[in-house]
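Good morning,

Attaching, inline, the backbone tokens for the sequence recovery test we're adding to the shared suite. The designed sequence is right after.
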């Protein structure tokens, strides 16, 4: 077991990484570690995650009441407590606003396409939890059905949250979420992604044991979405076919 001071140092290190990567602005985001069955070590409200010191962190009980520290708790601590309550295997939570992943969240688009082997093995997919007012129980209610089944999720019109067996695993999961969002965005800009077929997805999911990946659940249908479910919505026309369609539309309106 690590000392509380070591856990404080780990949160400070992750806070600076999150800030340096541009995943938070001003006082955004929050990080926590479950110290034991009764205590949570967490970042306080109103502080830049890149400018914290170990003594700025606060200790809370499992009901979210502050029991140590000179700063105040974040109003989003209930999100962390909900994750710890629903996932006994989780020891740390990282919440941030990585720009590209948050762009997907504000568009209501999950990261659920079968595009990258590493992401398929690690997550299957990254769903979007419906919007809830930050700092209220409305924030966590849409998350509850997703927390037992996923290690990362987008939060509609808000950001992303990842969690793991320690704070570095939670941070690395956030890094993977943002990296995969960037790649999917580029694929969309280049005309659309090439989604892997179901047979390849199944091979990757079956390889989890070989890579030591323990998914939180046995999986969900179409998570991730394979080529057979995704389909191809693009329509290809020759020049003459396009001219014919335009002429037909003009004639129907008496313009040709």
């Amino acid at each position: 077991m690590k000392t509380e001071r070591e856990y404080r140092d780990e949160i400070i290190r992750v806070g600076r990484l999150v800030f340096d990567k541009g995943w938070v602005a001003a006082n955004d985001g929050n990080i926590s570690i479950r110290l034991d069955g009764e205590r949570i070590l967490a970042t306080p409200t109103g502080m830049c995650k890149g400018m914290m010191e170990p003594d700025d962190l606060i200790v809370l009980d499992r009901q979210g009441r502050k029991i140590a520290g000179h700063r105040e708790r974040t109003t989003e601590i209930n999100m962390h407590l909900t994750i710890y309550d629903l996932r006994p295997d989780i020891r740390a939570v990282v919440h941030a606003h990585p720009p590209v992943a948050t762009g997907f969240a504000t568009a209501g688009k999950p990261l659920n396409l079968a595009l990258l082997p590493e992401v398929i093995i690690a997550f299957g997919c990254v769903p979007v939890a419906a919007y809830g007012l930050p700092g209220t129980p409305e924030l966590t209610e849409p998350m509850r059905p997703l927390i037992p089944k996923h290690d990362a999720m987008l939060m509609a019109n808000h950001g992303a949250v990842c969690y793991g067996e320690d704070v570095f695993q939670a941070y690395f999961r956030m890094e993977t979420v943002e990296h995969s969002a960037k790649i999917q965005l580029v694929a969309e800009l280049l005309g659309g992604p090439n989604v892997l077929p179901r047979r390849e997805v199944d091979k990757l999911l079956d390889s989890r044991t070989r890579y030591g990946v323990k998914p939180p659940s046995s999986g969900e249908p179409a998570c991730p979405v394979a080529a057979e479910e995704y389909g191809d919505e693009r329509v290809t026309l020759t020049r003459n076919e396009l001219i014919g369609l335009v002429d037909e539309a003009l004639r129907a309106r008496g313009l040709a």
